[in-house]
TrEMBL record:
This is beta-glucosidase. The keyword Cell membrane does not apply. One of its GO terms (cellular component) is extracellular region. Its EC number is 3.2.1.21. InterPro entries: Cellulose_deg_GH3, Fn3-like, GH, Glyco_hydro_3_AS, Glyco_hydro_3_C, Glyco_hydro_3_C_sf, Glyco_hydro_3_N, Glyco_hydro_3_N_sf. It catalyses: Hydrolysis of terminal, non-reducing beta-D-glucosyl residues with release of beta-D-glucose.
């Protein structure tokens, strides 16, 4: 008998196991001093004052969220603001390369320095909590609208770069809000709407630990003061009232000492969220907490000790960031921007010009370079095409560029480009430097490819032709090179409607039919398929520029002209076809008996991106970790050894500190190799280590390094493999298991170019 449509969410109750009571912060590790201060502070507060710390309030400021001050005790309140790629809704700040570009740089040092530079701007503006970085979505669904905000769909790469971002931002005294906890893998139905609940991410314990929790674990280990719980449901319990994920995974297993804030409007219950481990609600406490929370304590529904714990976690974070002394006025540089521009600006943020540019440059990945098309060599004539080459037509406080742009590019919109009408897979109204939504940011200026190329043309006496509108432009056949700059847009709030668009593909083939040196560049907010044009012999080069931020054009030109050799590598795979993703191409929709309760079943387990392509023997067009350079590298001299004195017992047993059992981070094995620059120019190479764990995946990334090597020189690269790197999650023991057996260690330049292999034998 066919099942009828499910109309009552009671059917699902019980799938996410209950974990109560909510663990109280203990002040473990380097939190001890801050907890002691917070304890003394909170003990002086009335119940109402403590509750006041837990809920957002409105104020005359463009902060995304505000916690009011408690003036009698010199607590100055909190301003929380978006986001992980730069501060938005204010002026005198910078547009940094987005998460996906940092992922493509594979550069930990750069991730750290970018974070420091960005955080200086948050601090100057009086922002206490930067609402980023993003590690969820991880990128399970390839078309998910927010994948670009994060670093990579590989948990190891994502986690490493997130950890450096957390350390960098917090070193400046600004707290990070690592988000969105957890399995926030699609925008479609992320929130309840029209009687349909938010989508439920249904997954098993092993997948949770080995994929989705992994980067959050790195961020907690790095000391993030804040975690943002997500809109979606996890095994049918909302992200901000899920006692298993908040009380269990985060506060027990990972020993998290900071506070949990709700995503904006992600709270759907009062008492239940308090007991499940939520510590602060945004943007307003008044729907479920505020007076109701006081009442819940007074009538015994919520123990006062839970409110004390919330207050202590919040105030301890404020002390830990050193925000009690010398911090700029809370929200002081965050005016109601449109109403009163400049009114409350404190001063120009200290910007790190060099890092802004380096971030833009290293996010570029060179994927094809036939006939040495690149670098360009004193061209006499260049023809430039494509809507992503030119700057926005106007950029004023009223029409704030990429944020506003995202609104006008809703997926149902059709956009006129010249006399063609195209779907909004692309941002057609100006060069794309960031994706849309709350992760978009505010550029101080925009260096577009056209402007940067024009400056270079001046230096080199090059002539330019250009057409940014036509899908079938006239091409001067004597052009030394024809450059086509397109994009692939994505935004918070909706998922991408495709991974390639016919307008841009036709533009490329139209240009290539008249120009035998066609160089294609994409500003791509995610995977962009290229099979419709890439085998065309007149398409000689392909660059994925990703989302470079305000120095976009300058960075591109430095790559195209070889001022710097490209060193980015793909932080995801590029397959031939959409169908290669199977069900992971598109978001799950409400359907059948789940019309009102959309159920996204993560039945693929840990097999996403290259893990899935490896397992299913699908050859991608460009594999995970791939990227070309203007020089060449050779790998040699692999050495793999057990670390001296390594404890190889099956499970970690030391106490839990922030991030989990302390001995999860013990170094169990060491890997080293030599890389030689065998080509003509200096270049940086991303060397990658993959491990095949017994009874597990063929291989997964477990290390990377990026030395800069002069021509003819060699560099040694060393990698430490920790207990966690070599373990799998044991669902019965509820712990990380180190198995006895042979571990294959691969070293090379991409996930499918691994010239060095060795076997590590572990006896447990
Ligand atoms: C909702 C988004 O999901 C989150 O990432 C953002 O920080 C908040 N809105 C605040 O703008």
């Amino acid at each position: 008998m066919a099942q009828s449509v499910i109309t009552d969410d009671a059917v699902f109750y019980g799938q996410s196991p209950p974990v109560y009571p909510s663990p109280e912060g203990t002040g473990a590790g380097d939190w001890a001093d801050s907890y002691a201060k917070a304890d003394a502070f909170v003990s002086q507060l009335s119940l109402e004052e403590k509750v006041g710390l837990t809920g957002g309030t409105s104020a005359d400021s463009s902060c995304s969220g505000i916690i009011p001050p408690i003036e009698r005790l010199n607590f100055t309140g909190l301003c929380l603001s978006d986001a992980g790629n730069g501060l938005r809704t204010t002026d005198f700040v910078s547009s940094w390369a987005s998460g996906i570009s940092v992922g493509a740089s594979w550069n930990r040092d750069l991730a750290y320095k970018r974070a420091v530079g960005m955080a200086g701007e948050f601090r100057t503006k009086g922002v206490n909590v930067a609402l980023g970085p993003v590690v969820g979505p991880l990128g399970r669904i390839v078309s998910s609208g927010r994948n670009w905000e994060g670093f990579s769909n590989d948990p190891y790469l994502c986690g490493a770069l997130a950890a450096d971002t957390v350390t960098g931002i917090q070193s400046v005294g600004v707290a990070t809000s690592v988000k969105h906890f957890i399995t926030n893998e699609q925008e479609t139905n992320r929130n309840p709407e029209d009687n349909i609940t938010a989508v439920s991410s249904n997954l098993d314990d092993k997948t949770m630990h080995e994929l989705y929790l992994w980067p959050f674990q790195d961020a907690v280990k790095a000391g993030t003061a804040n975690i943002m719980c997500s809109y979606n449901r996890i095994n049918n319990s909302y992200g901000c009232s899920n006692s298993y994920t908040l009380n269990g995974l985060l506060k027990t297993e990972l020993g998290f000492q900071g506070f949990v804030v709700s995503d904006w409007g992600a709270q759907h219950a009062g008492v239940a969220t308090a007991l499940a481990g939520l510590d602060m609600v945004m943007p307003s406490g008044s729907d479920f907490w505020a007076k109701n929370l006081t009442q819940a304590v007074n009538n015994g529904s919520v123990p006062e000790s839970r409110i004390d714990d919330m207050a202590q976690r919040i105030v301890a974070s404020w002390y830990k960031m050193g925000q009690d002394t010398g911090f700029p006025t809370t929200g002081g540089g965050m005016p109601e921007y449109l109403a009163a521009p400049h009114q409350t600006v404190i001063g120009k943020a200290a910007s790190s010009k060099e890092i802004l540019l380096q971030g833009a440059v290293e996010g570029h990945v060179l994927l094809k370079n036939d006939n040495n098309a690149l670098p360009l060599k004193s061209p006499k004539l260049i023809s430039l095409f494509g809507y992503s080459a030119k700057a926005f037509d106007g950029y004023t406080p009223e029409a704030s560029g990429w944020n506003g742009g995202s609104e006008s590019l809703a997926p149902s919109d059709a956009i006129a480009v010249g006399d063609e009408t195209v779907h909004s897979q692309i941002a057609a109204n100006g060069t794309l430097i960031s994706g849309g939504g709350s992760g978009a940011n505010q550029p101080a200026y925009v260096s577009s490819p056209f402007e940067a190329l024009s400056l270079r043309a001046y230096d080199d006496d090059t002539s330019l032709w250009w057409d940014f509108h036509s899908g079938n432009p006239a091409v001067d056949q004597s052009s030394d090179a024809c450059i086509v700059v397109g994009n692939a847009f994505a935004s918070e709030g909706w998922d991408r409607v495709g991974l390639h668009d016919d307008f841009t593909d036709a533009l490329i083939t139209n240009v290539a039919s008249q120009c035998n040196n066609t160089i294609v560049v994409f500003h791509n907010a995610g995977v962009r398929l290229v099979d419709q044009f890439i085998d065309n012999p007149n398409v000689t080069a392909l660059v994925f520029a990703h989302l470079p931020g305000q120095d976009s054009g300058r960075a591109l030109i430095s790559i195209l002209y070889g001022d710097v050799s490209p060193s980015g590598k793909l932080p995801y795979s590029v397959p031939h076809n959409e169908s290669d993703y199977g069900p992971l191409q598109n978001a799950t929709l409400p359907d059948g008996i789940y019309e009102l309760f959309p159920q996204s079943d993560f039945t693929e387990g840990v097999y996403i991106d290259y893990r899935a392509f490896d397992a299913k023997n699908i050859t991608p067009r460009y594999e995970f970790g791939f990227g070309l350079s203007y020089t060449t590298f050779e790998y040699s001299g692999l050495q793999v050894s057990l670390a001296g004195g390594a404890d190889t017992s099956a499970y970690p047993s030391k106490p839990i500190v922030e991030g989990g059992h302390e001995d999860l981070w013990d170094i169990v094995a060491q890997v080293s190799a030599t890389i030689t620059n065998t080509g003509p120019v200096v270049g940086a190479e991303v060397a990658q280590v993959y491990v095949g764990i017994p009874n597990g995946l063929v291989k997964q990334l477990r290390g990377f390094a990026k030395p800069v090597i002069e021509p003819g020189q060699a560099a040694a690269v060393d990698f430490d493999l920790t207990r966690r790197d070599l373990s799998t999650w044991d669902v019965v023991a509820q712990n990380w298991l180190l198995q006895e057996g042979e571990y294959t260690i691969y070293v090379g330049s991409s996930s499918r170019d691994l010239p060095l292999t060795a076997v590590l034998l572990l006896t447990v």
